[in-house]
Design brief:
The protein is mainly α. The protein is 84% helix and 0% strand. The model has no long low-confidence stretch (mean pLDDT 79).
Length: 192
């Protein structure tokens, strides 16, 4: 069953509409959607390694644009919209402490969190809610999101065939590790 799902995902990732879906997911993930764009970026880069950097560029632009929306949510409509989103993800109590850190460490928070698979929407909304300097926020977002997506694309461009073969041989192990990583990331956020 996993092999059929994997084959289907690769087929979808090589479809002509895949870049549009990648952009939509990257945009949404940066402001409100829980699934990171890597779930589409990786199979797209595996299906077409020569286009990996193009896909990373699409991911970066869309993620930064989505980050601007997340910033706006935090800045302009925090109480009406963002507070319920943060509460939905279980971050309400930690958000207060996170927001207070912005006074001293805002740029470093954006740089560190933007490189990790930790939900970037928390950073974008918090940046807006803290009224962090928008130009610095955007520059840091371009740098960190670009670095993250281009690193993935570069690895897949050069090692894509080996990665694909490894995944196909050990699909259950790979999906299990990804699931553990995603769940672990949410648990780290929940209990830090």
């Amino acid at each position: 069953m996993l092999h059929r799902l994997y084959a289907r995902t690769l087929a979808l990732a090589s479809s002509p509409r895949a870049p549009w879906w990648l952009a939509a997911i990257a945009f949404a993930e940066a402001s409100f959607f829980p699934i990171p764009p890597d779930v589409l970026l990786v199979p797209m880069a595996l299906a077409r390694p020569a286009r990996a950097w193009r896909f990373a560029f699409i991911c970066t632009l869309a993620s930064v644009a989505g980050g601007a929306l997340g910033y706006y949510i935090g800045y302009a409509v925090f109480d009406q919209f963002a507070r319920p989103v943060i509460a939905f993800y279980g971050y309400a109590a930690r958000f207060e402490a996170f927001q207070a850190m912005y006074a001293q460490y805002g740029l470093w928070i954006i740089l560190v969190k933007g490189l990790t698979p930790i939900p970037y929407k928390i950073v974008t909304i918090a940046s807006g809610a803290a009224h962090f300097d928008f130009a610095i926020f955007m520059a840091a977002s371009v740098a960190t999101r670009g670095a993250r997506f281009f690193l993935v694309a570069t690895l897949l461009h050069f090692f894509g065939e080996r990665v694909r073969v490894f995944i196909e041989r050990r699909l259950t192990l790979v999906t299990s590790l990804i699931a553990v990583g995603v769940i672990g990331g949410f648990l780290v956020l929940r209990f830090l």
